[in-house]
Structures are given as C-alpha cells and as structure tokens.
Design brief:
The complex is a heterodimer of chains A (97) and B (754). Chain A has 97 residues and is mostly helical. In chain A, 80% of the residues lie in helices and 0% in strands. Chain A has helices spanning 2-22, 26-51, 54-84. Chain A starts with a helix and ends in a 13-residue tail after the last helix. With 754 residues, chain B is mainly alpha-helical. Helix content of chain B is 69%, strand content 3%. Chain B is built from 29 helices and five strands. Chain B has a three-stranded antiparallel sheet with strand order 1-2-3. The relative contact order of chain B is 0.08. Classes of the chains: A mainly alpha (97), B mainly alpha (754). The interface between A and B is small, with 12 and 11 residues.
C-alpha cells in the first residue's frame, strides 16, 4: 500500500518539476509548484501510517505555508502583469542584478 | 638612542652609579664629569644645526649683510654649481670638492665661529683635566659610568655606559685636541661658504660620535659611535652635494663601509652567542675559555669591520674618493680620527686578538700589503689631496702591522703621531688649496687648484706653510727626531722582534710559517718606508719648489692663509716634531737622555700590557741592542735614501701645468689610474650587481613576479571570477530552476551511487 502511495507521490512530484522547468507561463509554473508541495504532502501522509502522526502534523504546516505563498505569489504575478502585460517568464528578467 | 643617553646623562649627572664600585680611585674626581666630554660637541651640533635651519626658515632682513646672505641662502647651491669650474674628467675621478667656494657669508657665521671651536676647546680642556686626574690616581681598573639600561632582550642586558681607561683617554685627547685645532682652522677655511653652520653642525656631531666610539664600555655602544661617525663622514664627504661626483663619493664611502659593518655585527653576535656578554670587561674575562677557532673567526669578522672603516685592502677604495669633502674634513675624519677607529678596535679587543695568532697574522699581512700598495699609487698621483689620501691608507697599513703582531702600543703610538703629522699635512694642503683657489678665483680661471702640476715654487708665497709641511714630511718619512721616526721605527722593530719566540711566529698562515711571514712583513714595511719618503718628497718638491706654474696673472694673488688657519698648523707642527716624546725608545734615551723612556708603553700597560705579553710568551718582545741599532740605522738610511732619490730624480722645473701635461704611458699610467682597481670593482661587482638588480630583481622579481603575478595577477583572477559569476546571473528564473534541479539531481546522484 505504501509503495503505491509513494509511487504516486513521486509521479506527481516529477510532473511538477518538469512543469516548472519547461513551461513559461508564470501561473502554470505556480500551479506546478503547488503540485510538488502536494506530492510531498501525500508522501508525508502515507508514511505517517507507519511512523506515527508527526507527518500529518507537518502536512498542516506545509498547507499553511502553501496558502501564504499562493497569496503572495499570485499578488506578485498580478503586479508583474500590470507592468508588462505578460506573465511569460522568458520576457521577464527583473532578477538580473 | 645615544642622544637619549646624553640627555639622561645630563639629568642624572649628580648620581652616576659607578659600576666598578665606590672605591674606584677616580670617583669623586673630575672624572665624574666624563659624560660631559661627548655632550659638549653634541650641544654644539644642536646649536649649529638649529642656526643652519633657522636661517633657512627666516631669511628676512635685519642683519648687516642681509642682502648678501639672503642671496646666498636662496641661491646657494645653484650658485655653487654655476661657480664651480667645469673640470675635464681627470685621472682623479673628478671629485674635486674644494675647487669651488661660493663666497657668501652666512648670517650666523659669527655665532657659529664661536660655538663650534669653543665646544671642542671645552671638551678638550675637560679631557685634559681628566687625564691629569688619571695620572695622579694610577688606576689599573677602568672607570665605568653606567647611565641606564639601554636594552634588555632575553639574556642580553646592555647598559648605556662609558668606560674611562688609559687607552680611551689617549684617543679622547687625540680626538678633542686635534679636533679642536681643525675646528679653528675650519673657521678660516669655510667661513665664506653658505653652508657654514651646517658644516660645523656635522663636524661637532662627528666629534660626539667619535667620542662615543672610544668611550663606550661595551661593543654595542661602540658600534653606535662606529655607525655615527660613518654617517657624519657620509654627510661631510657629500657636503657640496650639488655636484654629483661629491654626492657619489659620499655614497661610495657609506656603502663600502656597510660591508665592513656586516663583519662587525657578525662578530658581535658570535661573541654574544659564545660568551653571553658584550661588555669589554666581561668579554676580556671570558675570552680565554673560547676555542681557538672561534676566537679566530670572531677576530677576522671584527677585522672585516676595521678593513672597511680604516680603508684597508680590499675595501680601501672609498678613502681616496672621500677627498671630495672639504679639506679640514679630510684632515679630521679621513686622516686623524675616524679611519683609525679600526686600529683602536683591534687594540681595544687585544684580549681577543692576542688569543688568535692566525687572525693577528692576517691583520698584519693585510696592513703590510695595503701599506705597500697604497704607497705605490701615491707615487704617481697629481692631486695633492689624493697623494695624502693614499699616504693615509698606507700609514693605516703600518698601524695594522703593529696591532696585528700584538704590538698594540706601537699601533696606538703611530696612530697618535700620524694624527699630528697627517692633520698637519692635510691642513697645510688646505692652506695651499685656499691660496690656489683664491688666485684662480680672482682671474676666473678654470684650472685645477688641487693639482700639484699647477703649483710649484709656493715656498716664496707661503713660507710658514712650507716650513711646517716639511716638518710633517720629515716626520712621516721617518727622519729622527721627528715623531713619525719613533712610531714607525717601533712598528718595524716590533714586527722584527716577534718573528722569533712569539705565538705568531709559531703559527702558520695558510701553510706559510708565521716566522717567515713576519720577516716578509718587515721587508714590506722597509720598502714602504722608502716609498713613503719618495712620494712625500715628490709632493713637497712639486708643490713648493722649482718655478711657479700657476700662471702669470694668478701669481700675484698667491699668499699665506690668515692666522686663524696657520695658527693650528703651527701647533700641529710642534706636535709633529716632538710627538715622538710620547714613547721614546730605550736605545734613544740611553744615548740622548732628553725625556722619559717608553712613556706611552707604561701608560697603556694596564690595558694592553698583559695581552701584549701573551703574544710573546710572557716576556717583553725585545731584540739585542746591536740589532736594534742596526734596525734603526737601516730605517733612517732608507728614509734618507727615499728623500735623496726623489730629490735627485725629480726635477720640478721640467713639469708643465696640468692642461699641457701629456697623458701617462705604461706603468706610470697604471699607477696614476690606481691599478684600475675602481674599474675592476666596477666590472666585477658594481656592474653585475647593477645588471642583476635591473634585469633580475627589478624587471624579473619586482615588475614580473610581485607586480605582474601577485598584484596584477590576483586582481585579474578576481575579475575573471566576477565576470563568470555575472554572466551566470541572467535574471531568467527558468535557467535558475534548471540549475537548481540539476544540482539536486547531482547531489542525490552522488549520495545514492556512493
């Protein structure tokens, strides 16, 4: 049972990573990051069946952080869009020093 | 440090703790004022130095000849350069310092003329009073004044202390006495020079350091004086520094002396490493426990210092060039006092040298070879000061012959008499140059005022100088009863006497038996005495006899120097004539009971007597009376022969002035060019060093390695990394993500595959 759960988690995580790497739309990349977080949550929950409830507690933390991150991240994306009329990351290099 | 020592001494003079204990015979006498002897010239240095700075800072009006003085102050060196005669490069190397005097009297010349000589007079008076106190006290132990602890480093504890003993007082009398006369002479000679206060400041400072040198109670204090006189020598050789040749001569003297000082320092470190003390008394007490090889090494390193300071082969080359300084400086520093510091060092270290016969033989042989070598060069010099310079080198060689064979008294005796007659010769030549220069200055001629070919017949114009210089010439040639006869004869007799029955004779030097070597040294001494008589008579003949070659227009201006200059000459003349009375030999007083026998020998007995006897197995070195008469007869015959040879062979009327003189040929050229030693040193040492410094050290190490690789290289490396880093920062988040993921994959890969 654990193996299947971890396999699913790994598959979701990989999809998230690949999405972050190859997509250019900031919103989609953001969703892929959420996917990776939830893949990790899944493995936490699966493992907590065998190693106690600590993993489940951690999931709550991750969800809290993810919610905060979603709020801030989406706000940044909206702000960038207002400036540049695009959310395509290839056209945005504000991080260059 | 020594200035601080002086100030401390001033503050503490009421209670100087005598190290030898309160019971010393000299404590409570005038000797308690010992510290004042060097402080007085130091005071003169401070006053004169301040005056020389003051006048530069405030060149305003207010003194009678302000315009005159100000012009000299503002344009002094420029004028000095413009006024100097553009001399063609001659065989003497072109270092003709005295040949230009800017006539511009300094506004404080009056004060300086009083302060400079007065300090020396007071110092001499005090020294003489101390000498009289010592005569009554009959102390056999040195009188030591300890002022404060100079430095403490581990086991080494050095005191700033002066030591008064019979050897030191002899040197102090010579330094302050002859120094005072030369200061007085300088008043006449230098008064119209714009740098007059500076000159007297340096001269006073020199006397201070020279006194520190001879009065120090340990080697490091002596070394302070040793370096200090070197500094003053450098400053005074380059006194007219606006001419490059003079500045170069000063630098040459300084650098050559550094080679010798290296030896001195190594010897000090070896002494400390083996004995743990550097006090003269401590070293003297502990020296016998040293291994012979160690003592020999220490002595040879000490002697390296002497070779530099006292201008012996191979480091003699600086002394002839030192004639670039004013002539009274040549008399005081480069004839009478500083250059004899090496002889003093050997005599002071007699407790070491008497234990090392091989080192003693080295000293004596170096002295002998130098004496002969310099005398041959002196035969063919034309510059009057160069003749005297080589004569000085030669006479210093005689002194080293004496102290090398352990005849320390004979060495110090010759040191004293040489100080008299050589100071007289130099000051006399100063008078001659003064007159010559005045004559040439009057007509604006650019001829060389120091070349004997331009002189001739001066006895008609300067009779006093003529008579006095003949006295000095007879003294240096060794004609009885003048002073040089007794001292030189004692040296030669001492060498001869030690060829048998002394530790030196039994030692072997590089496989040569010491006895044979001593006979050889004696032979060289005799030959050198002959040459000395020849070159000195030649100088006198060309300068004072025959027709005058100065020039028609100039002849009328030739006249005797003022009395402030000839006065000291007269005193030195008396000393040169009767200086032999310091130490009349027994065979002489037996025949002519005119004075005490071996006075100096008895006087110095507490200091060097024991060590002199150590060389000769406890018995005083002596030769039979008949042998001694024979030796004296031979020496006198040689001297007379030298004078007669020169008188017969040299004809001053055949001489032509310098500008008409043909170039020398053959061996004459070799001698006139001083065996091309300077050129040889230039090729063998200076040029390789120069090329090595330029090619390797400058271009290679400094410009290439330090500047190129280390400084610029590291800067380039930082820039390269910076460029690499900045190109990686694209600002494209996608790229960052890729790098991040690849990094994670790599890390995981490493951890799983390991």
């Amino acid at each position: 049972m654990l193996a299947e759960a971890l396999a699913l988690s790994a598959a979701l995580f990989t999809i998230g990573v690949v999405g972050v790497l190859i997509r250019r739309n900031a919103i989609i990349i953001f969703m892929c990051v959420e996917l990776m977080l939830n893949a990790v949550n899944l493995s936490f929950v699966a493992l907590s069946r065998y190693y106690g409830a600590d993993g489940q507690v951690f999931v709550f933390f991750v969800m809290t952080v993810a919610a905060a991150e979603a709020a801030v991240g989406l706000a940044i994306i909206i702000s960038i869009f207002r400036h540049r009329q695009t959310v395509n990351l290839q056209n945005i290099n504000l991080m260059r020093g | 440090m020594t200035v601080a020592a002086g100030v401390m001494a001033l503050l503490q003079h009421s209670a100087p703790a005598a190290a030898a204990g309160d019971a010393h015979a000299l404590s409570g006498t005038v000797a308690d004022w010992l510290w004042l002897v060097p402080i007085l010239p130091l005071l003169g240095f401070i006053i004169n130095g301040a005056l020389s700075l003051l006048a530069v800072a405030h060149p305003g009006p207010g003194d009678p000849d302000a315009g005159h003085g100000d012009a000299a102050l503002s344009t002094g060196h420029v004028a000095s350069g413009a006024d100097s005669h553009a001399l063609p490069a001659d065989s003497g190397g072109g270092a003709h310092g005295d040949d230009h005097h800017t006539v511009a009297r300094h506004r404080y010349a009056g004060i300086v003329s009083v302060v400079g000589p007065l300090m020396l007079a007071l110092s001499f008076g005090l020294t003489f009073a101390i000498f009289l106190a010592m005569r009554t006290a009959h102390a056999t132990e040195p009188f030591i004044q300890r002022y404060f602890t100079w430095m403490v480093a581990g086991e080494l504890s050095l005191a700033a202390a002066f030591q008064l003993d019979q050897l030191a007082i002899v040197m102090m009398l010579v330094i302050t006495g002859v120094g005072m006369l030369i200061h007085v002479f300088s008043v006449g000679y230098m008064r119209d020079d714009p740098g007059y206060p500076r000159y007297f400041a340096y001269l006073n400072l020199f006397v201070f350091f020279m006194l520190v040198l001879v009065m120090g109670a340990n080697y490091p204090v002596m070394f302070i004086g040793w370096e200090g006189v070197g500094l003053c020598s450098y400053l005074l050789i380059g006194f007219w520094f606006s001419e490059k040749a003079n500045a170069d001569a000063g630098k040459k003297a300084f650098i050559v002396n550094r080679i010798g000082d290296f030896g001195f320092l190594v010897a000090l470190m070896m002494l400390f490493a083996h004995l743990g003390t550097l006090d003269f008394q401590g070293v003297a007490a502990a020296a016998p426990q040293l291994a012979t090889a160690t003592v020999t090494a220490i002595c040879l390193f000490l002697f390296l210092g002497c070779v530099g300071k006292s201008a012996q082969i191979p480091l003699y080359v600086w002394l002839p060039d030192a004639m670039a300084g004013p002539t009274p400086v040549s008399a005081l520093i480069h004839a009478a006092t500083m250059v004899t510091a090496g002889v003093y060092l050997v005599a002071r270290s007699s407790f070491l040298f008497s234990l090392a016969p091989v080192a003693g033989l080295t000293v004596a042989l170096t002295g002998a070879v130098t004496a002969l070598f310099a005398a041959t060069i002196g035969l063919k010099q034309w510059d009057i000061k160069k003749i005297l310079a080589y004569s000085t080198v030669s006479q210093l060689g005689f002194m080293f012959m004496a102290v090398g064979v352990g005849a320390y008294v004979a060495g110090i005796f010759h040191l004293a008499t040489h100080a008299f007659f050589k100071a007289l010769l130099f000051l006399g030549s100063g008078s001659v140059i003064y007159a010559m220069h005045a004559a040439y200055h009057k007509t604006g001629s650019h001829d060389d005022a120091q070349d004997v070919r331009n002189m001739g017949g001066l006895r008609r114009f300067m009779p006093v100088t003529w008579v006095l210089m003949w006295i000095a010439t007879l003294a240096i040639s060794g004609i009885p009863p003048f002073s040089g006869f007794f001292s030189k004869d004692e040296i030669l007799t001492s060498v001869y006497a030690r060829a048998h029955g002394s530790t030196l004779a039994e030692a072997s030097w590089l496989g040569i038996p010491g006895s044979a070597l001593l006979y050889f040294i004696y032979f060289i001494g005799i030959v050198t005495a002959l040459l000395t008589a020849i070159y000195m008579t030649r100088m006198m003949l060309y300068t004072f006899h025959g027709p005058n070659r100065t020039g028609e227009a100039e002849r009328g201006a030739l006249r005797e120097a003022p009395w402030v200059m000839t006065g000291p000459l007269v005193v030195l003349g008396v000393l040169s004539a009767f200086g032999g009375w310091l130490n009349l030999p027994g065979v002489f007083t037996d025949l002519f009971p005119v004075g005490p026998t071996f006075a100096l020998e008895h006087w110095l007995e507490p200091v060097v007597g024991e060590h002199q006897l150590a060389v000769t197995h406890g018995e005083a070195a002596h030769v039979s009376a008949n042998t001694e008469y024979l030796l004296i007869g031979a020496a006198v015959a040689i001297a007379v022969a030298g004078i007669l040879i020169a008188w017969r062979l040299l004809n001053p009327s055949r001489l032509v002035p310098k500008r008409e003189a043909p170039a020398e040929q053959g061996y004459e050229r070799v001698l006139a060019e001083k065996y091309f030693v300077d050129e040889g040193y230039d090729r063998a040492v200076v040029q390789p060093l120069y090329r090595g410094s330029r090619g390797v050290l400058w271009r290679g190490v400094d410009a290439g390695l330090i500047d190129g690789l280390f400084v610029n290289g590291s800067a380039w490396l930082a820039r390269a990394f910076g460029w690499l880093g900045s190109t990686a920062q694209t600002g494209a988040v996608g790229t960052y993500a890729w790098v991040l993921v690849l990094g994670v994959v790599a890390v995981i890969g490493v951890f799983t595959l390991r």
